[in-house]
Amino acid sequence: MTYWRDCVDRMNGYTPGEQPRDHRIVKLNTNENPYPPCPGVSQALAEFDVNALRRYPDPSALELRREAARLFGLTEQHVLCGNGSDDLLTIGTRTFIDQGQRLAFTDPSYSLYPVLAQIQDAIPVTVPLTDSFDLPDTLATATQGCGMLFLARPNAPTGNSFDRNTLQRFCKRFPGIVWIDEAYADFADDHCVDLVPAHPNVVVSRTVSKSYSLAGIRLGLAFAAPPLVAQMMKVKDSYNVNMLTQQIALAALRDQDHVRRTVKQIRRTRAAVADALAQLGFHVLPSQANFLCVEPPLPATHFLEQLRQRSILVRHFPGPRTGSYVRVTIGTDREMDSFVAAARDIVACEC
Ligand SMILES: *Cc1c(COP(=O)(O)O)cnc(C)c1O
To answer: What predicted TM-score, i.e. pTM, was given to this entire model?
Structure first.
């Protein structure tokens, strides 16, 4: 007899990327934004009335939902806020998936999905992507009997996107929920929020952690048909988004120009780094995100260790599909210059 559930005993838990204390480290391991949040965020903090903290925050974050809805021509009934989009993924799993029910996700993909399935005591169903990390033609049959499919678009940790028309056709046929995790969509050429009004089974989630430079405040947004949002509202913690986060995020959503500018810069840097690495003999996967997934011309773990010795952190995902790659967050041009110089150095030592 144990005190804990068997499904919890069996699982490993999610491993977050390392957060080093030393600020001299070039930190390219958790896809944070290298640029500061918009000026409105500092102003919202400076003007915040500390006395207001005596009270509970708005349980439904109404003002924030209205602002988010406005960005996409939706209503507040289409929007749910979470304590980061990880919280939304948890709420979705608890709302839509029973114990013993099937929950699908692709391989590779965001490593939180299988953990959520395990916590729920659901049956994880892995859909292998093709050799070029695309959706397989067999997606519909592979997800048969599943209550939900988690799909990151652009995908993590590969950075590529999936064809929108293929995905839309799948959404129309699939009898369960299609949860499109758009954590990186602001860095991509297109997105899927516009699928929400016409599809009663589609949820699209966003986060301010990456494109808005606000990973520290924890805010995620889910867009879905009002009946889906209403059910998820019942499942979430009443006060899942704190008062400070609601105020700060509101200021951030109101400055779309700032996001556009930093995203443009990151996309420019991404293209330059991709070129430089390809010239050094790296295999560079096409990226629509704020990171590059690259295969070095030496063992990935060796490359990672050599970078670490030069105080540069990137992320490695062991396993047959991703083990030969490293994922490199796009930082400032200066940070990426150090990274490319280090990579050049390491590759030269190898031959
Ligand atoms: C970063 C990330 C998240 C988590 O976002 P938070 O809002 O910080 O919880 C969710 N999904 C994917 C694919 C991510 O890369």
So the answer is: 0.97
